[in-house]
C-alpha cells in the first residue's frame, strides 16, 4: 500500500465529527494533527499491560454480579435471557469503573446519565451523515444536549476534587492514570471528553464482540467444549489471574473469528486533508473514505470459499487469519489511529467469556431472529435470547 494512504494527510471526516460530537466531544477519536499526537501520547501509557491488570478484579466483580443474577433467574424457572441487553449493561458498568470510578456518588450518577444519553442518542442520531438529521428529532437532540451538560459538570467536579487530593490517593482508573502522567498533561475540559470517549468508544463495541461470540458458540457447541477444556487447563478452578489470560490461545482465535464475521465497528473513516496520490490515482482534498470493514471481512477474493463459515482455527498460525492482504482484517482500524483500547477489550472479553463458560452451557432460543444491522455499531437488532443451563 502506498505511503500516502497511511500518512498524516488523512484526518477524520467532518460529517462523522458533527454526528458524534455529543458522545466524544474533543476526545481522542475526534482530534487531529498535533493535538491528536499530544492526546495519544498521554493516553497510550494508561493502557499499558500492568495498568490493565490492576483493573481485572473490577471486571470479575461486575461479571460475577451479572452471572449471579442469571443463576437467580434460571432457578426461578426463567432460563431464557437476552444476553445482548445484559452484557451491554455490564460492559457499561465495567468501562465506567475502569474509566472514572463509580464507587462514589458522583461517579454513579455520571454513569446513569451516560447510559440515558446513549439511549437518547441511539433514537436521535442513527442517520450518520444525513444533513440536518439532528432537526428530525428535536426533542431527543435537546434531551441529549441537556444530559451532556449535566455529565460535563459532574465529571468536572470529580476531576476538580481529584486534583485537590491527587497527592494523597492516586486512583488506578484511567482518569487517575491520565492525571498522574508526569510532564504531559490534559486540561480538565480535555479529561472530561476523554472519560466520555472511553465510555462511548469502549463498552458497546466490547459488549457486541461478546454478544456475537455467544451467538456463534450457541450454534457451535463443540467450540463451547473446546474453550471450556482450555479454560480448565490454563485457569483451573481458582480465581482468574490476569497474567494467565494470554494462555487462552483458542479463545483468541474465537475472538478474531467473531470480529471478522461480525465486526462491531462496521466501518473506518478517513478524510483527505490535501490532494493525495495513491498509485495512479489522485484523491482530491476533502474526499471522505468509508472503509467497509464488514464487506471486506466477507470478501471471497480475500478469504476464500469458506469466508462465511465460523472457523476460528484459521487464526491458529496466522494473525491475519489467512487473509490474502495484510490490511484485509481491520476490526480495530489501522495505522497510528488504531484503537487505543484494544488490549482492555481483549482482557475484558477473556474474563467475561471465561466466567460465563465456567458456569453455564447455552443454546439458541427458538425466539431468536437473525438480523444483524448497522446502527452506528453492528448489532443484533432483535437482541440475543439464549437458553442457559447451569453446569
Ligand atoms: C471489541 C472492542 C472494540 C472495537 C471493535 C473497537 C474498534 C475501534 C475502531 C475501528 C477504531 C477506529 C480506528 C481507526 O480509525 O483506524 C477505534 C478507535 C478508538 N477506540 Fe476502540 N474498539 C474497541 C474497544 C475500545 C475500548 C475498550 C476503548 C476504551 C476504553 C476504545 C477506545 C477507542 C479510542 C479512544 C479510539 C480512538 C483512537 C485514535 O483515534 O487515536 N475502544 N476503536
UniProtKB/TrEMBL annotation:
It is found in: Membrane. GO terms for molecular function: heme binding; iron ion binding; monooxygenase activity; oxidoreductase activity, acting on paired donors, with incorporation or reduction of molecular oxygen. Heme binds at residue 339. Signal peptide: none annotated. Its main location: membrane. Belongs to the cytochrome P450 family. Its cofactor is heme. InterPro entries: Cyt_P450, Cyt_P450_CS, Cyt_P450_E_grp-I, Cyt_P450_sf, Cytochrome_P450_Monooxygen. One of its GO terms (cellular component) is membrane. This is Cytochrome P450, family 715, subfamily A, polypeptide 1.
